[in-house]
């Protein structure tokens, strides 16, 4: 009789742990699926890199034009 009670208590404890583990697994899985979006750093974004290259090119052209105006004004 003692063994039956022991087995019943052990099975109950295992069932409770299994239930808690299963619920935590389901909750974690639902959290992961919601947070599946990938963040993109600016250096990984092709549009950002194209825009940056265009801005730098325009800035270099402006600097070059200013340098040319300064040289022609000195002569």
Please characterize this protein's 3D structure.
The protein is built from two helices and no strands. It is mostly helical. The protein is rod-shaped. It folds into two domains: 1-37; 38-75.
- Structural class determined from secondary elements: mainly alpha
Order of helices and strands: HH
Number of domains: 2
Helix content range of the residues, please? over 70%
How many strand units?
0
> What proportion of the residues form beta strands (DSSP E)?
under 5%
Query: What is the 3D shape?
Result: rod-shaped
Tally of helical segments: 2
- What average pLDDT do the residues reach? 83
The main pleated sheet reads as: none
Q: Determine the N-to-C terminus distance.
A: 113 Å
Please tell me how large the radius of gyration is. Answer: 34 Å
The low-pLDDT segments are none
Layout of helices and strands:
Blueprint: H1 2-34, H2 46-74
Q: What are the salient characteristics of this protein?
A:
75 residues; mainly alpha; 2 domains; 83% helix
Brief characterization of the structure:
83% of the residues lie in helices and 0% in strands.
């Amino acid at each position: 009789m003692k063994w039956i009670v022991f087995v019943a208590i052990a099975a109950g404890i295992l069932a409770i742990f299994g239930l808690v583990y299963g619920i935590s697994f389901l909750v974690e899985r639902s959290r992961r699926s919601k947070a599946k979006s990938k963040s993109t750093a600016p250096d990984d974004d092709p549009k950002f890199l194209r825009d940056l290259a265009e801005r730098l090119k325009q800035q270099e052209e402006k600097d070059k034009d200013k340098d040319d105006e300064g040289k022609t004004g000195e002569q």
